[in-house]
Structure formats: structure tokens, C-alpha cells
Amino acid sequence: MSYFETSEPKLSSHQLLVPLIELAKQRGIHPDKALKGTKLFYSDFAQPDHVSSFSQLEQTIKNIMTCHLGQDISFVLGQHLLHSICARYASYLFHCSNLKALLAACKQLQGELFPYFSVRMFKQNKAIHLIVNPAISELQPSVYCFLLEVWLSLINGFLKWRFENTQVQFQLPYTTPVYIEEYQAIGANLLSFGHHFTTVVISKEALQTRQNSAIPALQSDIKTLANSNTVGFLAYAESFLIANPRATLEDLANYFNTSGATLKRKLALHNSQFSCLKDRVLSQQAGFCIGQQGYSNSQVAKVLDFNDLPNFRRAIKRWFGVTPSELRKVRI
Amino acid sequence: MIFSFRKVRHFSLWLLLLFSITITLICTVYLGEPKPSSHIETLDALGEGGLAFMSLVWLIATLLSRPTGRVTTALAGGLTLMLISLLLDCLDEFFTFDHIHPTLSSLEAFPALLGMIVMSFAMHWWYQEQTYLNLTLLKKERHFREHTFTDYVTGLYSARYMEKQISIEIEQLANTGTKFCVAILDLKSYGRFCFEHGITKGELLLRDTGQLITLNIRGCDLACRYAGDKFIVLFPATPLHTAQSISQRVCAAAQIHYQYDENLLTLDPNTLHCACIEVSQPMQSKQIFEQLITQLHQNKQAA
């Protein structure tokens, strides 16, 4: 597995950036205004294989958000993305027999379908919990919300089309937005806001739901696709921290084949810090163990490799603002 | 590529503005005599200069925002005359004309007077223009105007505007007991339409549908875009059967509406699903929307 950084031109411009600029143009925004500060020109996109960096996409999103083009733009963009993904990856996705097989295919195609987010899976007896994190760089809340809306529109559009009447829960980390009707319009019924993390909860029964008109024999082999093994910088770092919860900055730097000081600089360039990244990895695990699996404090402390319980309690208080026992009573 | 200045909107008015400012400055500098620095009143000069600058800002804003026509020409002409007066008033602080004629400085207010007369005509025509525009906004606007609630795609108002309108109706219901109805209209297979014909064509379909709805409702009704492919119509002081019958007419009109592509080949007509409820007791607009969505889902499943 390899990784790419926020300033590296690794993302296909025609996947999200160009449609976003076209949508803004359709609504009266000049492409130069949308691309301000990105060092990109509209004419660059004439090349069909043009690539751009995540920071350029982020800047464009910020530029377009300041133009107040209506709250639906992210949802329309998600719909567009659904169409382009379906056109390109239909043979990989449309013939997955059920939702479980589709999730497995999406995991392998993660870098191709939506490389801006990474997904961490937690399994429970009755359901699976997919926690969604930024994959490349930490984002401003408004940009994160925008990308999350694009992603929700994409996911719900697919579910509505191929898995009609399948119930999937979405837990979002911000307060109920004023334009809640946009979320309802994409068919996301089981939505709740104000959670600590972005989580998708799918019941075990829902995972067995058969996909409409799927013929598994016609599914293309995902291994034939190149470049699907490259992930964003943060996702790469997180994958190491998930496997090594006690890792230090130096361990992570070794994993990146760099020095601690360089890694610190790189993390800062991605609006992050080692402690924040580690806290997120551990707090998500702790939140799941306490909130969903009902583990005792000592069990969770053991899972997270804490030496003593007072330390563990202090960490929980710092991450969630409540004690472990209070956390058991509230939803994560 | 040669840039053609003549293609600039209001080219002649911009030229008039530039010409007026240049002539005023040249005449003042050429004909006037500079005042000694001890005679210059800084605060007065700053205040009058500020007035001239602000009138220039208004003038530029008018030229940038208004379409070409009689009202704009009169507004720009009047403001230019006022600007000349204010500019002369400011330059008066630095130059004296006493050597030509002692009362010459007193004439500086006359362009402003003429400008105000022209502006008065402009205001009258503007009022008339607004009256006509208000007529075109019938069925799209009620009681108040708020451009921040406008939906860019359809040109209708958004769900926020409808929320405020429903709150007004609910207040009326609580005070006078006047019941009203709200309907939701949803485009059938909009996702598939976008998949087949693209998002641009999809947005055109939404715009057309918005117009189709406004065309088929009464003058007192209000149509807004809810979200995605859903529209909301408010029927004030209307019994349920009337609202349902109007909604059915809108759906029937949608069935015979055709979209055309570049080669004038007709694309499949899209039909509308609809749900309509009567509000007979005070409740929150969000609850009304929830009830409508639930009923719409039921109607879809029944269909």
C-alpha cells in the first residue's frame, strides 16, 4: 500500500473538481473565480486525464461556498458522481450479489470511488459500524460537511436505486442543519445528528439484502484495476496506528521512512498532529467498545493498551467530555 | 483577440460618467485659482469629498446591477448630475473662482437640482417597472421579498421561504380559524432522467417543472422548491378537495409536457407524484413537511 499527500496531483480532475466547476458555472460563477488560488486554469481541464491535488479541490470548494449558490450543490454533485461512478465501475458494482459483497468491492475500490474518506469497520453481533474519517487531510468543518453531503448523496442514490427499501442508519457529527429537507430528498431516512463520529450502521439482515438485477457471474475481477491500492496520507497513518495502538511518533516516522521532525511537518501540512490522530484512532475504538459492546472499563483499557484505569478514565473524559459510565448512557 | 469596448453593458453611460468627471476636473483646475493652504478647511473638504465618492459608488452600483433601459439611463443621468455638483462642491474647497465672477461658485448646486428632477422621473418609471415585475412574480412570491431564500436552479423560492409563509398561515389559522392546504409534488424517475441525459438537462427539467407548476396553480397560491426533485405548493384559505383537484391538474399538465434535446427529438415526459394535506390545527411547518413526505411515500407505494 502506498500513500499520496494533499499537495500531490493524484486525483482525477474529472471526477469531482470539473463537475463542481461546471455546476458553479451553470449557476453564474465564472470558472476563474471558482479556481482562484488553485494555480489551475479552466483550459487545463481540456486534457481528459488531467489530475489535481486535494488541496486544489479543497480551495475550489471553499471558493464556491463563499458564493452561496444554494445548499443543494453538494447533493447534486453527489448525484453526478453516482452517475459517473456507475458508468465507469458498473461491471464491478452492479453484479455484487448482496450488500455485504458490495461493501467488500467498495473496500477494494475505495481509492477509486471516493478517495477523500477512509472507512474503519467495527463488527457487532447485530450490525456493522462503518466509521468515516478524512483520508487525505483534516478539513475545515464546512468543507468536511460539503464532502460528507456529496458522499451521502452518492451512497443514498445507489442504495435507493439498487437496494430499494434497505434500511441503513447514518450518524453525523454536526448539529441538524437548517436545510434538512435536502437530506430527506436524497432518501436518507434514518439520519441522526450530533454524534462524535460519522458512522454508518448496517444491520446483519440488511447486509444480506440482494441487489436488484445482479448476476454475480457477470462481475468483473477488481484485481484487474490498477492503482486501487493508494490511499490518502491520513488514512495511511491511521492504518498503522490501528494496527499498533501503542505506537509513538518515531514508530510512525519509521513506517513513513522519514524522521520524526519531517513527519511532524507533514502532519502540520495536513492540518493534523500525531496526538490528534492517535486520539481519534483510540477514541473511536473506545466509543464502540463502551457504547455498542458494553465493555467494562478494564476490558476497554486492555483493548486500548492502557496501563492503568485512572489514565484510561482521564483519556475518555478528554475525548468525549464525559466519564466512561456517563458515556454508556449516551449514544456515541 | 480584440476586446470590443462597445460590447460593454451601458458603454455610453460609462463614457458619459468618465467624460463628466474629466470635464469637471479640467474646467475647475483650468479656470479656478488654487486657494492658499491656510484657507482650506480640511473637515469640510473631507465631508464633501466623501459625499462625492459615495454618489460615485451608487452610480457604479447602478450601472453594474441594472439592465439597459429607460429607468437605468435616467437613474445614471440623474446620479451623474448629482455627482458633478458634489464634486464641484468639494473642489470649491481647494479652488476659487472669484477672479471670474464672485457668484460663480453659487451655481454649483444647479446640476444637482436638475439631477434630482431627472431622478424623480426615474423613480416614477422604476415604480411602474416594479409593478409589472411584481405581476410576473405572482404565484412565486407572497407578502415579502427576500432574495437569500431564492433557489438558483428553478428561480422559485426555497423551503425556507415556504416555512415563513406557512408560519404566517398558521398564525392566521390560530386567529381566524382559516384552514389552508399544502401539497408536495415529486418528479417521477428524476434520478434515471439525470443518469440518461445528464445533470444539466436534469436542472432544466426542474426549472421547467417549476414553471409548469406556477402556470397551473391559482394567482393566490404559492409554489416553492422544497429540495431535490420536490416542490411545495401552498393553497391559502382552500378546502382540501379544491387543493387536490389543482394538484391533479398540475400532474396532468406534467404528463403532456415534453423536454427537447439539441436535435429536437422528444425525451420521455416526466410525471409527478403528489400528496396534499389540509392544515386545520396550529402546528410547526417542519411537522407539516414531515406529514407531506410520509403521505408522498405512501402514495408512491400505492402507485
Structural descriptors:
heterodimer; A: 332 residues; alpha/beta; Arc Repressor Mutant, subunit A; 3 domains; two-stranded parallel sheet; 16 helices; 9 strands; 11% strand; B: 303 residues; alpha+beta; Alpha-Beta Plaits; 2 domains; 4-stranded antiparallel sheet; two-stranded antiparallel ribbon; 9 helices; 8 strands; 12% strand
Count of domain modules of chain A: 3
Strand order of the biggest β-sheet of chain B: 4-5-3-8
Instruction: Please provide the count of β strands of chain A.
Output: 9
Structural class of chain A: alpha/beta
Distance between the termini of chain A: 31 Å
Major β-sheet of chain B, in short? 4 strands, antiparallel
Helix content of chain B: 55-70%
Which CATH top level class of the largest domain in chain B fits?
A: Alpha Beta
- CATH architectural group of the largest domain in chain B: 2-Layer Sandwich
Number of domains of chain B: 2
Instruction: Tell the overall outline of chain A.
Output: globular
Low-confidence stretches of chain A: none
Question: Which whole number gives the mean pLDDT of chain B?
Answer: 87
Principal-axis shape of chain B: elongated
Output the number of helix runs of chain A.
Answer: 16
Proportion of beta-strand residues of chain A: 5-15%
What level of helicity do the residues of chain A show? Answer: 40-55%
Number of DSSP strand runs of chain B: 8
Measure the end-to-end span of chain B: 58 Å
- What Rg of chain A is obtained from the alpha carbons, in whole angstroms? 20 Å
CATH superfamily of the largest domain in chain B: Reverse transcriptase/Diguanylate cyclase domain
EC number (chain B): 2.7.7.65
Enzyme class (chain B): transferase
Keywords (chain B): Membrane, Transmembrane, Transmembrane helix
Catalytic activity (chain B): 2 GTP = 3',3'-c-di-GMP + 2 diphosphate
